Amino acid sequence: MSLQVALTHRTSYKYDRLINLGLQVVRLRPAPHARTPLISYAMNVSPEERFTNWQQDPFGNWMARLVFPERVDHFEVEVDLHVEMASINPFDFFIEEECQEIGFEYDRALKKDLRPYLLKRAAGPLLRNLIEKTRPETGEVTLDWLVATNQVVQQMVGYTVRMEPGVQTPETTLKRAIGSCRDSAWLLVQLMRHHGFAARFVSGYLIQLTVDQRSVDGGPDGPDEGFTDLHAWTEIYMPGAGWIEFDTTSGLLAAEGHIPLAATPDPSSAAPISGALEPCEVTFGHEMSVERTLETPRVSAPYTVRQWAEVDALGREIDKRLEKGDVRLTMGGEPTFVAASDRDADEWNTGAVGPTKRAYADKLIRRLRTKFAPNGLMHYGQGKRYPGEQLPRWVLQSALRSGNHWPPPSLRQWHHRRRLTRSHHGPKGLKNLAGHR
User: Fold this and answer.
1) Where in the sequence is the domain holding 187, given as residue range(s)?
2) Which helix (H) or strand (E) holds 133?
3) Of 85, 191, 197, 384, whose CB count within 10 A is highest?
4) Phi and psi at residue 190, in whole multiples of 5°?
5) What residues contact residue 290 under an 8 Å CB cut-off, 6+ apart?
6) Rounded to an integer, what distance in angstroms lies between the CA atom of residue 368 and that of residue 32?
7) What is the reported pTM?
8) CATH at 171
């Protein structure tokens, strides 16, 4: 199953006159820790007369520094992103045993590394009330509490599209009980830090596609049409699991549709585009689109009747070509044999070798050779290597060169008798002969 999509993101600024445009920093390239497989990436900038320097910020995020030597009347950035929407299990991680329950502390060395993500700002009365409301009990399961707290924030803050720049303070967001994705994400960051958890702010792309099948139990079906937009969420650090992504807008954990662009201790250093310019009148433009480029059949969207017919027709054509070339196919397998006596011994369950297994195997391969490969070559050698085992298994084989020696006389005689039975006795005679096979 493969589902690939192309995302296009265009941001434009048109100025009412020629101006000196200062240094522009663009953070629109998937961060190194993005889990959604990246197929291709391209960023086009206008005007073309510029200097571009790609680098990573102190937190490992990609950033492009753009310098324009001449005065400009516009500035445009277009990103083309091609990704594979491979399903991601957001709970595919392990938390260290000592951190499974509330009450643990980061060890000294780790806490030093996480210092920027533990800095908390002074809490107002509304945030202090929320801290008390969500204060965990000692012994509570850590992951359960994190999920529940994320949902508390989601239920307390209504979502809105806010065009004003910047991020609201947690106190403002709680007072208004409404905010954009970046506002609720920053609220969760501060809430987690006051509880002693390292948390960071994430800016990125959100891709949501239409579902293959509608819900049958009245649950949410998702969008009617696929869309993409800039989004913000929170990452919390857990020993053993690393950074776990929580989307406060949905109250869920992030998955393949969340593509991080920048993860930083503060929202100001995660802005998609930032820079200085001369005072002027600016016309702002913003366009985003997502398109499916490759979509193979899967459980929720299987082959159509027409596709099955094409597969069947192709198979029949291959059969004709194989038959014409006298290519004969057989199906291999690995039957398992167990001794009739002492079948509970280790050699017939977990042991690679034992006191009787090799002798039985030698006896079996010689009987098979006599029946199917007379005068064939006997080979005793190295077999498969299985995960977790230090040494490879042993294997006994018998090989016979194809030609006049195959099939062996016993099989040739049976086929001859079977043809005679079909010709002279019909189905009834064939049925009577079955007992002699």
Assistant:
1) 97-272
2) helix 125-133
3) 191
4) -65, -40
5) 5, 6, 7, 8, 207, 209, 226, 227, 228
6) 56
7) 0.71
8) 3.10.620.30
